[in-house]
Specification:
The protein has one domain. It has 15 helices and no strands. Helix 3 crosses helix 11, helix 4 crosses helix 9 and helix 10 packs antiparallel against helix 11. The protein is globular. The N and C termini lie close together (about 10 Å). About 45% of the residues are buried.
């Protein structure tokens, strides 16, 4: 089975995925750059506080929500495409997710302990059961409500403890060798994947199901519906995210605020799509999201960790959105060059090869 040709893809979805890469990097920099270490070394300045609040209000929880909805939507579209081709759709998707789980393990241990690929794979394997019978939206909302409730309970139970104090600050990342950092990452990734699948898995399942529900419908949503989504999202999202911004480490209502603003961003992106012009170029980064996500981890861990340039704890979080925009802009150019010559990203090509168990990469 051949890769989906560029003319058969949906540029809007690819560009939305590229936009999500910007927000995901901005938030991941809190871990990669060590915002807690910055506060310990330089103090809590006005710029630091404003930077954390901007990230909490506009970014945190919003872009992994977009990415997760698109992940579920992608599973549904792939299932339909495989089925129409007479292939074992569920078998192929299980193989893809199995490869993703292995890649997530390598990513989490060797590059970035904040990996979410393994959790996506584990939750995705469970979500496959809902592909044969399209899930009703109420089921997705039920899982989302349960997931948000689990997270809120855990936050409230640890509100007055020191459990969260070291989340964004680790001396090993600032001064350690590659092997010392990798040992730390191994422990953090194992614990993070187990805890993340339990704490965040139900929420992710709800987002995947929401994407599956939208897969056959997203192109039929008219302006009136989209503007209602914007209005409701802002009505809920503004007060919730203002509250989260006052607690940038814990963000008790991160999931709800993230969903509200994610839907606003997606609806506005759809409404304004014909007039966005140069932002259409985000589709190139969005066509090879796996390669670009891991490239972000490779470059940023080398820039910030002690075995690289050692900037861990040295960059004010106020700069994180600008860094993310600049780096993804570079990824857009690299992706366009790569796709013009090879049609796929390098990891996407390997992923396809593994999925079909072919003896070549063509």
């Amino acid at each position: 089975m051949q890769p989906l040709p560029a003319q058969a893809r949906a540029p809007f979805l690819d560009a939305l995925r590229g936009l999500a890469l910007v927000g995901i990097l901005a938030v991941n920099l809190e871990l990669l750059a060590g915002v807690g270490m910055y506060a310990a070394l330089h103090g809590v300045s006005t710029g630091y506080t404003v930077g954390r609040e901007i990230l909490a209000f506009f970014f945190s929880g919003k872009f992994y929500t977009i990415f997760s909805i698109l992940f579920g939507l992608g599973l549904a579209l792939q299932y339909r495409r495989f089925s129409e081709a007479g292939l074992d759709a569920l078998g192929l998707l299980r193989r893809r997710l199995g490869w993703l789980l292995g890649l997530g393990a390598l990513h989490g241990v060797l590059l970035f302990e904040g990996d979410i690929l393994a959790t996506y794979a584990l939750v995705g394997l469970f979500a496959l059961r809902y592909l044969t019978q399209p899930p009703p939206p109420g089921l997705a909302l039920g899982f989302l409500g349960l997931g948000y409730g689990i997270y809120l309970v855990i936050v409230r139970l640890t509100w007055n403890t020191e459990d969260w104090s070291g989340l964004y600050s680790n001396e090993i990342f600032r001064t350690g060798s590659y092997w010392a950092v990798t040992s730390e990452r191994l422990f953090n990734w194992l614990w993070g994947t187990l805890a993340g699948t339990f704490i965040q898995g139900v929420e992710l399942l709800g987002l995947f199901l929401l994407g599956m529900y939208l897969a056959p419908r997203w192109q039929t949503l008219g302006p009136a519906t989209l503007w209602r989504v914007v209005a409701v999202g802002l009505l809920i999202g503004i007060p919730v995210n203002l509250y989260n911004a006052q607690h940038p480490d814990l963000q008790p209502l991160r999931g709800l605020g993230g969903l509200a603003f994610a839907l606003v961003y997606m609806a506005l992106f759809r409404l304004l799509w014909p007039r966005l012009g140069w932002l259409h170029n985000l589709q190139y980064a969005g066509r090879m999201p796996l390669s670009n996500y891991l490239l972000q981890s490779l470059v940023m861990s080398t820039v910030f960790y002690g075995y690289g340039l050692g900037l861990y704890g040295q960059v004010n979080p106020l700069w994180f959105p600008a860094i993310a925009v600049g780096f993804v802009g570079l990824q857009v150019a690299l992706s366009r060059w790569r796709l013009a010559r090879f049609g796929q990203g390098p990891l996407e090509r390997l992923w396809r090869s593994f999925t079909y168990r072919s003896g070549h990469l063509g």
